[in-house]
Design a protein that fits this description.
It is a single chain. About 45% of the residues lie in helices and about 15% in strands. It is an alpha/beta fold. Among the domains are: about 1-40 and about 155-275, Rossmann fold (3-Layer(aba) Sandwich); about 305-545, Aldolase class I (TIM Barrel, Alpha-Beta Barrel). The strands form six sheets. The protein has a six-stranded parallel beta sheet with strand order 2-1-6-7-8-9, with helices on both faces. The chain has a six-stranded parallel beta sheet with strand order 10-13-14-15-16-17, sandwiched between helices. It has a two-stranded antiparallel ribbon with strand order 3-20. Helix 8 packs across helix 9 (about 200-215). It starts with a strand and ends in a 13-residue tail after the last strand.
Length: about 650
């Protein structure tokens, strides 16, 4: 039996993700033929080219022309008009520039990749291309971290609607290129591994395309995003949510997938929901196998491969956390034998010509990391690596020097907050003094230190948020990169399970959100005013100017392939030295808006305010959502005359 393992869009195309290579290695170690497919990088490789983007530019032109022929625009038409006119000036230069932008990111010499101006232009071009794709398929919004429509994943009906060819930018690749390859390989089982929420809708869209072409093919889905979304439901409910999939694998998939192959080979009907078991002992577990993946197509000048030396989290108490293959918090901590880790990494380096590795796990214990670094030094592996750690007292000067000698390029530290009260409330288990010392010791050893923080944890006030920003600023000379996001409530976290302990008065889902993808909460006493939040955002913008920061997955974002390569080539302080690069760029000349268009600023102010008001009513007042409810509010809003036209008798000015 041939098994196809597929990683669907839409996420980071700069390096392989771990799940498909791990499952491939496990099945191949048992003699099973595997066809691994990174549909994410293949789909973007086909989409981010001049010809398809030019075709999408024509689609944008036609959609905009239809709006300009209307006598008046309702609320949803205004939103569409704003999106189309936003990308219209880019319709010439982006398709013309995209091939060169991709070439910069793949430049094997590194000359343009490591030139900040060339790199910045390439990144801005790719992001503009993704905005063009999104506008062509509006109301879709898609980038390398998300894939969403206003009502995405609310129900099976909505999932089917978003999967229709006219709504899916990946449909041609799914239904033709990928289906033809599966047919040629005579595949009997397809497993889709979804690691991130942005892959769920494209994964379902792919499954619908596969079922249309191969009705008898067994389709199974699994992965961290699937587990976190579905594990809180009972098996009967999960079976109802499968849609085009024949089975769902929850939690770790190696043993479960092997059992599934056995059942299908024996002619048995597998159950619709399969609960995988955590591998109790990682010793002897096959390493990831990247053979068969399109390694030349990743958007990087050289390969950066992932590897999992451990699984789960050895602390596992942080109140905000729900991560990985678990119902609550994180999975139980396990680690591979030190010698096995070193051997696997050296074999990966030699087999696939990879010098740089991302050690991908929930948390890499400093003591274990020190042993791995020592083992790599002993076997002269010549591997450089980045990873995530807790900022513990065990990151002593001696430990950090040994990590550096063993190949450490960067360490992303889970700081969360610099407020002592919040650190205790989160149950971080590490004090601020130890965090500061860990940053200092790692930086002194020549390791790039990345600080992961957030604001808006329940009950956090303005001074506490500013304390975190002040802590980053004080350590600017030692912090290579930082991120300071906003807290979001996760289903499997302790905060969601025990809201009262964290000052939360109410937690709710929206009626009509069948999959409970949105989780909302209200504090007993609002800790910040709108002015407080504006002030914090302004201070954060000022702080960010001291680094060359980018959104994931680009260089200047934490724990990414490109950032690792920049550290290796240009040093751990590279993103501080390059601060301000973005301001040096001059983008190509842009196309003027078509005749009949207008200054959209006034329309944007009104339409976006109305949109925010609709969603505020749905979320906080009705606690319900549906396309019908949204349409009820949207159609009640005044229409406006189409740009460039006199007001018709039936149009009301806003």
């Amino acid at each position: 039996m041939t098994v196809a393992l597929i990683y669907p869009p839409a996420c980071d195309p700069t390096a392989p993700y771990l799940s498909v290579p791990l499952l491939t290695g496990h099945l191949r170690s048992h003699g099973i033929t595997v066809l691994p497919v990174d549909a994410n990088v293949e789909a973007f490789d086909g989409l981010l080219r001049q010809a398809p983007l030019s075709a999408l530019a024509r689609r944008v032109e036609k959609r905009l022309a239809r709006l300009l022929r209307k006598p008046a625009l309702g609320h949803t038409d205004q939103l569409l008009f704003l999106r189309l006119t936003d990308v219209f000036p880019d319709l010439d230069w982006v398709p013309a520039a995209v091939d060169d932008a991709v070439a910069v990111l793949r430049d094997p010499t590194g000359r343009r990749f490591y030139d900040p101006v060339h790199y910045e232009k390439a990144v801005l071009t790719i992001m503009a291309a993704l905005r063009l794709v999104s506008a062509a398929y509006s109301p879709l919004s898609m980038d390398f971290t998300s894939y969403r429509t206003p009502f995405a994943l609310l129900s099976e009906a909505q999932i089917r609607s978003d999967a229709r060819p006219e709504n899916d930018p990946f449909h041609d690749y799914f239904s033709k290129t990928l289906c033809d390859r599966l047919a040629a390989a005579d595949v009997k089982l397809v497993g889709l591994s979804m690691a991130f929420p942005g892959q769920i809708q494209p994964g379902y869209s792919l499954a619908y395309a596969l079922k249309a072409r191969f009705p008898q093919l067994h389709l199974s889905m699994g992965g961290p995003a699937v587990t976190q979304l579905l594990a809180r439901f009972d098996d009967a409910r999960i079976a109802d949510m499968r849609g085009p999939f024949d089975s769902v694998v929850l939690f770790e998939g190696e043993a479960a997938l092997l059992d599934l192959v056995g059942m299908l080979s024996a002619g048995l009907n597998p159950p619709p929901v399969i609960h995988g078991n955590q591998a109790a002992d990682l010793a002897g577990l096959a390493p990831p196998d990247f053979d068969g993946l399109p390694l030349e197509k990743y958007f990087s000048p050289e390969l950066v491969l992932p590897y999992d030396p451990t699984r789960g989290c050895y602390w596992g108490k942080c109140a905000f956390c729900h991560y990985g293959l678990s119902c609550r918090g994180t999975a139980a901590y396990r680690q591979r034998p030190v010698a096995e880790v070193a051997t696997h990494l050296k074999q990966m380096s030699m087999r696939w010509g990879c010098r740089t590795v991302y050690l991908s796990q929930d948390a890499f214990a400093p003591a274990f990391a020190r042993q791995v670094a020592g083992a790599l030094s002993e076997i002269d592996a010549d591997i450089r690596w980045g990873t995530d750690m807790r900022p513990e007292a065990s990151l002593t000067p001696d430990c950090c020097r040994e990590l550096k000698a063993g190949g450490a390029l960067s360490v992303a530290l889970g700081i969360e907050s610099a407020s002592p009260r919040l650190i205790r409330l989160i149950d971080k288990g590490v004090g601020l003094a130890d965090m500061t010392t860990a940053v200092h010791n790692l930086a002194t050893a020549g390791i790039a230190v990345e600080a992961m923080c957030f604001t808006d944890f329940p009950t956090e006030n303005r001074p506490e948020a500013q304390t975190t920003l002040a802590w980053i600023r004080a350590l600017r000379s030692e912090i290579a990169l930082f991120i300071c996001g906003r807290f979001g409530l996760s289903h499997g976290s302790r905060v969601a399970a025990e809201p009262d302990a964290f000052g939360i008065e109410a937690v709710w889902h929206l009626d009509g959100d069948d999959w409970q993808t949105g989780l909302f909460y209200r504090e007993r006493r609002e800790a910040k005013t709108a002015d407080d939040r504006e002030t914090i955002d302004r201070h954060l913008d000022d702080l960010s100017a001291g680094w060359w920061l980018h959104d994931y997955p680009w260089a200047g974002a934490l724990s990414t392939a490109h950032s690792l390569l920049y550290y290796a080539a240009l040093g751990p302080d590279v993103f501080r030295r390059l601060a301000g690069t973005r301001r040096k760029l001059a983008l190509p000349k842009k196309r003027a808006l078509p005749p009949g268009s207008c200054d959209t600023r006034r329309m944007a102010e009104t339409a976006y305010r109305n949109e925010a008001d609709i969603w505020d009513r749905l979320i906080h007042h009705l606690c319900a959502v549906s396309p019908a409810l949204y349409a009820q509010f949207a159609t009640a809003l005044p229409t406006v005359s189409a740009p460039g036209k006199e007001r018709s008798s039936g149009a009301r000015r806003q």
